[in-house]
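Deliverable D4.2, example record:
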Amino acid sequence: MRSPRESRWRELAEPVRMQRVALVAPSDSLREVLGLVAEAGVLELDAPTQPGTTEDTSLDAVAGRTVVRGEVAALTGWVPVAELAPLAQRLRDSGGAAVPLAAPRGTDPPTLLREGGGLRRAFTPLVQTYGTVPYEDVDPSVAAGLAYIVMFGMMFGDVGHGALLAALGLLVRSERVPRLAPIRRLWPFVTGAGLAAMAFGLLYGECFGPTGLVPVLWLAPLDHPVTLLVAGVAVGGVLLAAAQALATVNRWREGGWPRAVSAPSGVAGAALLAGTGLVAGGVWRDLPWLTVLGGGVAVAGVVLAFAGFLATSGGGGSGVTQAVVEVFDAVLRVGTNLISFARLAAFGLTHAALGLVVWDGTSALAGSGPVLVAAAVVLFVLGNVLTFGLEALVAGIQALRLEYYELFSRLFEGEGRPFRPWCLPAPTPSDQPSVQGRGP
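Output generated by the structure prediction step:
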């Protein structure tokens, strides 16, 4: 029996657990039972299996798909485990029942991610936009959202701009602007991105550009571009390592330990990534022993990956050739993935450069008379508005690109299918009975 703490961690890390069921009802009360099921909205019915059949979700169509044996009719489908008992209770008075069944071999249950509240509710769309999480995989919504916020903040590092973005997130939460109501669930996302930008802005000493309003706590981006580029790659290495760890768990859940050990997104890939990091650290710190250790770890990862590719290729000469090509691609991918995170620094430098241009222009105009002072104010405001809009768009897109191509491509090797509970279609105006008024 799982402890409450273990159950909470499992709920945080995996999709909603599904149960295969048979919906059973007396033939004479089938429509009543189906109506109750549609009202509950928690049961996904199996789709028609006849070739060329389009799925009709009307009550008559669903009733026509039941299997009838004597006085009993039945349908099969999927229901969240937590909803099984309430559904059975709802059907009891009408003579219906939801009978648990074993899942057919080779059939994956549909995926329903837990929305909950707060961070999970805000971050789930980030994963759903990429695709449907396979049922056996880890739900990375919270981790993915936090990674996105960190990457965005590093590229959008400015205390002033970050504060504006955080204020926008709080405005979305307040519902004072009705047009923003549809995205209210995303307010933690927007506010978190603004706070991350403020944190990096403090590290960079940027507040509406290099105005001197805040001190440089770490480095000024334009004064130390190489250091910032190295830091961007290092942050990418940490994020890749975290993604690799979650991916290893996914491979284990999908195919057991053999798959988890030999997959490029499993232990083999983790060893290759760790070895690359150790070699880079050894070269940077001039530690030969660390370089040798890293090389050994990387070679071990290559061997494991080769064995996995060879096993899936079927062996023989063509299998060896295919495995060699796949291993070369895996090694190349580690390097390109790491280098790709240099854009965290590159776009941070772009943001700082735009801020510098606006501030230099403002400073040049500010000491040249009242008229030019007014022009300096206009330049400062409009320049920051342009920088804010442009860099927010660029940083948002680039963070999404890194999330999907470098991180999610490791986590997922396939795609699940979304849970679609059955509900009766909403009536159209043509379905409503017409009412003709009487004349005088």
